[in-house]
Amino acid sequence: MPLDQIGQTLASFYDTLVAEGIPEHLAVLVRQVRQSESDHAAGAAASEPEAAAERGERLALVVEDDPEVRALAEALLEETELGVIGCDSAEAALNVLQARGGEVALVFADVRLAGEMDGLQLARAVATLWPRARLVITSGGTVARPDVPAEAVFIPKPWRALELLVEAERAACEPKPPLG
After folding, report:
1. CA gap 30, 14 in Å, rounded
2. Is the peptide bond preceding residue 158 cis, with omega within 30 degrees of 0?
3. Tens of pLDDT along 109-122?
4. In terms of domains, do 27 and 108 share one?
5. What is the tens place of the pLDDT at every residue in 16-60?
6. CA–CA separation, 135 and 35 (whole Å)
7. In the record, which positions carry 4-aspartylphosphate (predicted)?
8. Both 166 and 111 in a single domain?
9. Angle 64-68-72 (CA atoms, 0-180°, nearest 5)?
10. Do 161 and 105 have their domain in common?
11. Which of 65, 101, 133, 180 is the most exposed place for a label (fewest CB within 10 A)?
Protein backbone atom coordinates (compact mmCIF):
# COMPACT_ATOMS: atom_id res chain seq x y z
CA MET A 1 0.00 0.00 0.00
CA PRO A 2 1.51 3.37 -0.96
CA LEU A 3 2.39 5.74 1.86
CA ASP A 4 -0.23 8.29 0.81
CA GLN A 5 -2.96 5.64 1.16
CA ILE A 6 -1.67 4.79 4.64
CA GLY A 7 -1.92 8.47 5.55
CA GLN A 8 -5.45 8.66 4.19
CA THR A 9 -6.41 5.54 6.12
CA LEU A 10 -4.95 6.96 9.35
CA ALA A 11 -6.74 10.24 8.75
CA SER A 12 -10.02 8.40 8.23
CA PHE A 13 -9.91 6.88 11.71
CA TYR A 14 -8.08 9.70 13.52
CA ASP A 15 -11.22 10.85 15.37
CA THR A 16 -11.87 7.27 16.48
CA LEU A 17 -8.30 6.97 17.82
CA VAL A 18 -8.69 10.17 19.82
CA ALA A 19 -12.10 9.08 21.12
CA GLU A 20 -10.59 5.77 22.25
CA GLY A 21 -8.01 7.59 24.33
CA ILE A 22 -4.87 7.51 22.20
CA PRO A 23 -2.23 9.61 24.03
CA GLU A 24 -2.04 13.21 22.84
CA HIS A 25 1.55 12.88 21.55
CA LEU A 26 0.41 10.05 19.26
CA ALA A 27 -2.63 12.05 18.17
CA VAL A 28 -0.27 14.89 17.22
CA LEU A 29 1.83 12.41 15.24
CA VAL A 30 -1.25 11.16 13.37
CA ARG A 31 -2.15 14.78 12.54
CA GLN A 32 1.41 15.40 11.30
CA VAL A 33 1.37 12.26 9.15
CA ARG A 34 -2.02 13.28 7.73
CA GLN A 35 -0.71 16.79 6.92
CA SER A 36 2.56 15.56 5.41
CA GLU A 37 0.65 13.01 3.33
CA SER A 38 -1.68 15.67 1.94
CA ASP A 39 1.33 17.92 1.20
CA HIS A 40 3.10 14.97 -0.41
CA ALA A 41 0.08 14.02 -2.51
CA ALA A 42 0.16 17.40 -4.25
CA GLY A 43 3.65 16.82 -5.65
CA ALA A 44 3.72 13.04 -5.74
CA ALA A 45 2.69 12.47 -9.34
CA ALA A 46 5.70 14.29 -10.80
CA SER A 47 8.33 12.98 -8.40
CA GLU A 48 7.24 9.36 -7.80
CA PRO A 49 9.96 7.67 -9.94
CA GLU A 50 12.70 9.74 -8.26
CA ALA A 51 11.29 9.04 -4.80
CA ALA A 52 11.13 5.31 -5.53
CA ALA A 53 14.80 5.29 -6.51
CA GLU A 54 15.77 7.09 -3.29
CA ARG A 55 13.80 4.59 -1.17
CA GLY A 56 15.85 1.60 -2.30
CA GLU A 57 17.82 1.23 0.91
CA ARG A 58 16.19 -0.57 3.84
CA LEU A 59 16.99 0.90 7.24
CA ALA A 60 17.53 -0.19 10.83
CA LEU A 61 16.67 2.43 13.42
CA VAL A 62 18.56 2.12 16.73
CA VAL A 63 16.88 4.06 19.54
CA GLU A 64 19.06 4.05 22.66
CA ASP A 65 19.99 6.85 25.06
CA ASP A 66 23.31 5.30 26.13
CA PRO A 67 25.82 6.42 23.46
CA GLU A 68 28.09 3.38 23.96
CA VAL A 69 25.29 0.84 23.69
CA ARG A 70 23.82 2.69 20.69
CA ALA A 71 27.25 2.73 18.98
CA LEU A 72 27.64 -1.02 19.59
CA ALA A 73 24.22 -1.80 18.13
CA GLU A 74 24.89 0.51 15.17
CA ALA A 75 28.26 -1.15 14.50
CA LEU A 76 26.68 -4.60 14.56
CA LEU A 77 23.84 -3.60 12.27
CA GLU A 78 26.24 -1.94 9.82
CA GLU A 79 27.47 -5.47 9.10
CA THR A 80 24.03 -6.36 7.73
CA GLU A 81 22.43 -5.29 4.47
CA LEU A 82 20.47 -2.59 6.31
CA GLY A 83 21.47 1.05 6.49
CA VAL A 84 21.66 2.27 10.10
CA ILE A 85 20.38 5.42 11.79
CA GLY A 86 20.86 6.00 15.52
CA CYS A 87 18.67 8.14 17.78
CA ASP A 88 18.79 8.88 21.51
CA SER A 89 15.07 9.59 21.92
CA ALA A 90 11.71 8.40 20.69
CA GLU A 91 11.00 11.90 19.39
CA ALA A 92 14.12 11.79 17.19
CA ALA A 93 13.13 8.32 15.99
CA LEU A 94 9.64 9.56 15.10
CA ASN A 95 11.18 12.36 13.03
CA VAL A 96 13.18 9.76 11.09
CA LEU A 97 10.09 7.59 10.70
CA GLN A 98 8.03 10.51 9.43
CA ALA A 99 10.67 11.25 6.80
CA ARG A 100 11.69 7.69 5.87
CA GLY A 101 9.18 5.32 7.51
CA GLY A 102 8.61 3.30 4.35
CA GLU A 103 12.31 2.40 4.28
CA VAL A 104 12.57 1.32 7.94
CA ALA A 105 12.72 -2.46 8.21
CA LEU A 106 13.82 -2.67 11.86
CA VAL A 107 13.28 -0.52 14.95
CA PHE A 108 15.53 -1.60 17.84
CA ALA A 109 14.58 0.46 20.90
CA ASP A 110 15.43 0.55 24.58
CA VAL A 111 12.54 1.08 26.98
CA ARG A 112 14.27 3.94 28.79
CA LEU A 113 15.11 6.85 26.47
CA ALA A 114 15.98 10.52 26.58
CA GLY A 115 12.97 12.77 25.99
CA GLU A 116 9.32 12.61 26.96
CA MET A 117 8.40 9.27 25.36
CA ASP A 118 9.76 5.88 26.36
CA GLY A 119 10.51 2.94 24.10
CA LEU A 120 7.17 1.25 24.78
CA GLN A 121 5.26 4.35 23.66
CA LEU A 122 7.48 4.49 20.58
CA ALA A 123 6.79 0.80 19.90
CA ARG A 124 3.03 1.36 20.10
CA ALA A 125 3.33 4.29 17.67
CA VAL A 126 5.44 2.22 15.25
CA ALA A 127 3.05 -0.74 15.47
CA THR A 128 0.14 1.59 14.64
CA LEU A 129 1.67 3.91 12.06
CA TRP A 130 4.44 1.80 10.47
CA PRO A 131 3.23 -1.79 10.91
CA ARG A 132 5.66 -3.20 8.34
CA ALA A 133 8.71 -2.35 10.48
CA ARG A 134 10.01 -5.19 12.67
CA LEU A 135 9.96 -4.07 16.32
CA VAL A 136 12.60 -5.21 18.81
CA ILE A 137 12.40 -3.83 22.34
CA THR A 138 15.19 -4.17 24.89
CA SER A 139 15.58 -3.27 28.55
CA GLY A 140 17.81 -3.97 31.52
CA GLY A 141 14.76 -3.80 33.77
CA THR A 142 11.68 -5.94 34.06
CA VAL A 143 9.03 -5.33 31.43
CA ALA A 144 5.60 -6.94 31.63
CA ARG A 145 4.65 -8.65 28.37
CA PRO A 146 1.26 -6.85 28.21
CA ASP A 147 3.18 -3.54 28.00
CA VAL A 148 5.05 -4.69 24.88
CA PRO A 149 3.03 -4.60 21.64
CA ALA A 150 2.14 -8.07 20.38
CA GLU A 151 4.04 -7.32 17.16
CA ALA A 152 7.30 -6.70 19.05
CA VAL A 153 10.09 -9.03 20.07
CA PHE A 154 11.58 -8.44 23.53
CA ILE A 155 15.30 -9.05 24.14
CA PRO A 156 16.50 -8.43 27.72
CA LYS A 157 19.75 -6.59 28.38
CA PRO A 158 22.49 -7.46 28.24
CA TRP A 159 21.61 -8.69 24.75
CA ARG A 160 23.99 -10.74 22.68
CA ALA A 161 25.16 -9.65 19.25
CA LEU A 162 23.72 -12.80 17.69
CA GLU A 163 20.23 -11.99 18.98
CA LEU A 164 20.29 -8.56 17.34
CA LEU A 165 21.77 -9.89 14.11
CA VAL A 166 19.09 -12.60 13.88
CA GLU A 167 16.36 -9.97 14.22
CA ALA A 168 18.07 -7.77 11.60
CA GLU A 169 18.22 -10.74 9.22
CA ARG A 170 14.53 -11.40 9.77
CA ALA A 171 13.71 -7.74 9.15
CA ALA A 172 15.77 -7.69 5.95
CA CYS A 173 14.67 -11.03 4.50
CA GLU A 174 11.23 -12.03 5.71
CA PRO A 175 8.35 -10.69 3.68
CA LYS A 176 6.23 -8.25 5.66
CA PRO A 177 2.51 -8.88 5.97
CA PRO A 178 0.34 -6.97 3.51
CA LEU A 179 -1.32 -3.84 4.82
CA GLY A 180 -5.06 -3.53 4.89
Report:
1. 7
2. yes
3. 999 999 999 999 99
4. no
5. 555 555 555 555 555 555 555 445 544 443 333 333 334 458 999
6. 25
7. 110
8. yes
9. 85
10. yes
11. 180
